[in-house]
Amino acid sequence: MTATLPTAGIWKRFATLIYEAILLAAVLFLADYLFIALSHNRLPKWLLQLYLLGVMGAYFSWFWMHGQSLAMKTWHIHVVKTNGDKLDLITALKRFAFSWLIGISQLWAFVDKDQQFLHDRLAGTRLVIDVPRD
User: Fold this and answer.
1) Which pLDDT value is given to residue 84?
2) Which of 39, 82, 86, 105 has its CA 20 to 30 A from that of 112?
3) 134 inside domain
């Protein structure tokens, strides 16, 4: 059923990205605070950066494996595999890794025949519009 759902519009996806950035800033602020408080700021900065990258990967992977992040829920969007299945951990991690093609991935949507972001195309995922449940 999900494979037949319409793809979310490009501007709706951009709005979701902006909202996602705000929510992610709060998550990273808390994670950064906990890291510094527990380490007494004695660990190298690269370890903090690696930790924050892991927090982001865990945040997005968990939400995507459950269909949507908080921002996606607000904008009534779901992420699915191109065949309509839910994302597994490997697919979610691929989508996260490919999303680091910042700028290129989003601009790709303007030239893609289906207006898909590059990271969705590479990971085999797509964003679809939620359908109201009966």
Assistant:
1) 92
2) 86
3) no
Q: 14 is in which domain, residue-wise?
A: 2-129
Whole-structure pTM value: 0.89
Closest CA to 20 of 65, 60, 78: 60
Residue 29 corresponds to which tokens in the numbers above?
Answer: 């602020």
List 7's β-bridge partners, or say none.
Answer: 128
At residue 41, the pLDDT reads: 87
The neighbouring-strand residues paired with 125 are 81
Phi-psi label, residue 40: left if phi above 0, alpha if psi -120 to 50, beta otherwise: left
52-79: pLDDT as tens digits: 999 999 999 999 999 999 999 999 999 9
H runs (alpha helix) in 1-116 = 10-39, 45-65, 70-74, 89-98, 104-108
Handedness of CA 105, 126, 26, 50 (dihedral sign): negative
Q: Which token pair is 63? A: 């939400």
List CB contacts of 117: < 8 A, sequence separation 6 or more: 13, 99, 105, 106, 108, 109, 127
Classify residue 32: in a domain, yes or no.
Answer: yes
User: Any idea what the Cα angle at residue 33 is, between residues 60 and 41, rounded to 5°?
Assistant: 120
Examine residue 31 and state whether it is found in any structural domain, yes or no: yes
